[in-house]
Amino acid sequence: MIILDGNYGEGGGALVRTALALSALTGQEFKVTNIRAGRADSGLKPQHLTAIKTLKEFCHAEINNIDIGSTELHFKPGKIKKGIYDIDIGTAGSITLLLQALILPSLFAPGKVTFIITGGTCGKWQASVDYLQNILLPYLNRFVEKIEMKILKRGYYPKGQGLIRLEISPRFNIHKYPSFSALSEELPFKVPKFILLEQGKLEQIRGIVNVSAELQEKEVGERIKNAVVGSVKQYNAPVNIRVEYTKAESVGGEALVWGIFSKDGKVDYDNPVLLAGDALVEKNKSSEEIGKEAAEELKKQIEAHAAVDHHLADQLIQFMGLLPGSKIKAGEISKHAETNMYVVEKFLPVAFKVEKNVVSVEEK
Prior knowledge:
By secondary structure, the chain is α/β, with parallel strands linked by helices. The chain contains nine helices and 16 strands. 32% of the residues lie in helices and 28% in strands.
């Protein structure tokens, strides 16, 4: 059994989510202690419980008795199954953080997997559903026949109640292989590695500004958009930003902007270079400040000559573990990324190396 120290590295919920994803996929049981021990509100939170309970159903797992605040988890997975999963996190618990535990094993299910999830669509210390849809998912196409997410309703803090539908049609059925290691031996020959080392040329900047309908009268969305456009005009690239007003249970919103880069005039389908910046709509922060903040985050990644932004680096680690020989260059390597490397190395026969913000993974 794999034993993990929940207080390692970043010491938050990411360690639990990554372990759940890898355990469900590889069939290895694990035990984690000291869950979120360094946090003021230590132990499992509602979104972690939701992830554990969903995965328990998804792969017929056995678990110990857990509740909110539990600091120890013992998870023994069974077989992954296909199906439709309707999940309500309650409150504004993060949909994307929940999906960090669910997407990886779903890529190799024995048939189509559909997640219909109610919860928060953006918030502090998390990637938004727009980020997942536009930045992360394009990189996961390599593993599947199809992966598609629809944002059906926005859910802002504190009430949440946003709604998404994610459909995954796998290319590889894990049950057709005698073991997980037989599947993992085949994958590097059938799936392109992650090679993201050069930024290339900025072709265009895209963005989505989504805000609750109450803010339309003050033209908050348009003002955020204009601030972004003004901040990135130095790049002389086409800018296309969509403003969306939406009915939601709480007042809120987010600006997400991303650059699309090319090499020799082409955007690589398997390894597109997409760098993003984002900012939340918050009280006591002007629309102009919000737009500028999102744009400045994007500019910081561009000026660091990164080929992936630091949020994407965190999220790609678990998928890179399946494709030894993969290499990415990030603007910075976060504690989240280091924590994810620690977990992946426990479950898979690979080793990560970090040198000058380049992360590479090789077989052990």
